[in-house]
Amino acid sequence: MFPLAHSPPRVAAPFQIHGHFPIRRASLLAAQSVTVTPSSLSFGNQALSITSTAKTVTLKNGTSGSITISSISASGDYAQTNSCGNSMAAGANCTISVTFTPTATGSRTGALTITDTGSNSPQTVSLSGTGVLQATVSPTSLSFGSRAVATTSTTQGSYAQEQFAYRPEYLVDHGHRRLRADE
């Protein structure tokens, strides 16, 4: 045998219930907690001041008893609605819907926080999204009517402060040949 100073380290073995079904302590603790899945939500690009479609997370009471939920809140440019109520029975779950309404351009972060009587409270979900400018086109349609080839129509619309004019550059004859308008 090895001298005492060089003994291999002792590793905790899984314990058994009534001699059956080995269970690791970490697995038992995870089964006895309140969980929220997924742990993060990404909303991607979202136009300023426009509310995104909702994304959902699930809160599950994995404890052996009921829990009391004292608060569910979203921070930053995020809002939440939920079906959780003030308490959850053992093994029950509920849905929390989160939306994103950016108030500024660029990366926007926040958190969904659930505070309850579970031993691992609070549970949090990381929230992220990017506020972007929304392009607008006005008017939404233009009608140029019949125009002679190689003539310029009057300006009828604008996009991002630039004027557009319609001037056909090419014509296609019945033989599907492409001809320049000035030929």
In short:
By secondary structure, the chain is mostly beta strands. The protein has one helix spanning 25-31; strands at 15-17, 20-23, 34-37, 40-47, 55-61, 67-74, 78-82, 87-88, 93-100, 106-116, 123-132, 158-159, 162-163, 170-172, 178-180. The protein is rod-shaped and about 80 Å long.
Question: Can you describe this structure?
Answer:
With 183 residues, this protein is mainly β. The protein has two domains: 32-132, Immunoglobulins (Immunoglobulin-like, Sandwich), CATH 2.60.40; 136-183, no CATH class. Helix content is 4%, strand content 44%. It is built from one helix and 15 strands. The chain has one helix spanning 25-31, and strands at residues 15-17, 20-23, 34-37, 40-47, 55-61, 67-74, 78-82, 87-88, 93-100, 106-116, 123-132, 158-159, 162-163, 170-172, 178-180. The strands form five sheets. Strands 4-11-10-6-8 form a five-stranded mixed beta sheet, with no helix packed on it. A four-stranded antiparallel beta sheet has the order 3-5-9-7, with no helix packed on it. The chain has a two-stranded antiparallel ribbon with strand order 1-2. Strand 1 (15-17) and strand 2 (20-23) form a beta hairpin. The radius of gyration is 31 Å and the shape is rod-shaped. Residues 23-30 and 159-167 have low confidence and may be disordered.
